[in-house]
């Protein structure tokens, strides 16, 4: 299983990559495999503040719809527009082109409280 060491993870299977005061958020390789073929990503929180662990959108696969939980608090700055026409990018490249939102980092301590790659790997049995 692909678990980049430079990311932080949540028990709900989201990942975070911080660049300065902005964080990219997506779902993990494990999550996209469990969901199967992703057919739609619905984010309705653009320009809104979300709290840590609050739902910021959903991802729809062939068999199910799953809520997306924000790993950190902040304002949703951007939604990956590439996913509008190509939601399967989340399956193909979950840690790269398949990122879902960019969010401002309201509280850097929240990032530090997230799981390391090693801890997340233990959680999912990788």
UniProtKB/TrEMBL annotation:
Gene Ontology BP annotations: glycine decarboxylation via glycine cleavage system; protein lipoylation
What are the alphabetically sorted keywords of the record? Lipoyl
Write down any Gene Ontology CC term.
Answer: cytosol
- InterPro entries to which the protein is assigned, alphabetical: 2-oxoA_DH_lipoyl-BS, Biotin_lipoyl, GCV_H, GCV_H/Fam206, GCV_H_sub, Single_hybrid_motif
Q: Which CDD domains match?
A: GCS_H
Per its UniProt record, the required cofactor names are: (R)-lipoate
Q: Which domain of life is it from?
A: Bacteria
Positions of modified residues (N6-lipoyllysine): 63
Q: How is the cofactor bound?
A: Binds 1 lipoyl cofactor covalently.
Q: Show where the Lipoyl-binding domain sits.
A: 22-104
Q: Which Gene3D superfamilies match?
A: 2.40.50.100
Quaternary assembly: The glycine cleavage system is composed of four proteins: P, T, L and H.
In terms of NCBIfam families, this protein maps to: gcvH, PRK01202.1
- Read off the PANTHER family from this record: GLYCINE CLEAVAGE SYSTEM H PROTEIN, GLYCINE CLEAVAGE SYSTEM H PROTEIN-RELATED
Q: What does this protein do?
A: The glycine cleavage system catalyzes the degradation of glycine. The H protein shuttles the methylamine group of glycine from the P protein to the T protein.
For this chain, the family text in UniProt reads:
Belongs to the GcvH family.
Q: Which HAMAP family match?
A: GcvH
Q: Report the protein name in the record.
A: Glycine cleavage system H protein
Tell me the classification of the organism that encodes this protein. Bacteria, Pseudomonadati, Bacteroidota, Cytophagia, Cytophagales
């Amino acid at each position: 299983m692909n678990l980049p060491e430079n990311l932080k993870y949540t028990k709900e299977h989201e990942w975070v990559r911080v660049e300065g005061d902005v964080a990219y958020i997506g779902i993990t390789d494990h999550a996209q495999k469990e969901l199967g073929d992703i057919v739609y990503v619905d984010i309705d929180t653009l320009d809104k503040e979300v709290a840590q662990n609050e739902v910021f959108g959903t991802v729809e696969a062939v068999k199910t719809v799953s809520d997306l939980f924000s790993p950190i608090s902040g304002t949703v700055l951007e939604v990956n527009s590439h996913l509008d026409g190509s939601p399967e990018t989340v399956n193909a490249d979950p840690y790269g082109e398949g990122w879902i939102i960019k969010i401002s980092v309201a509280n850097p301590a929240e990032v530090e409280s997230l799981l390391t790659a090693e801890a997340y790997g233990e959680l999912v049995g990788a």
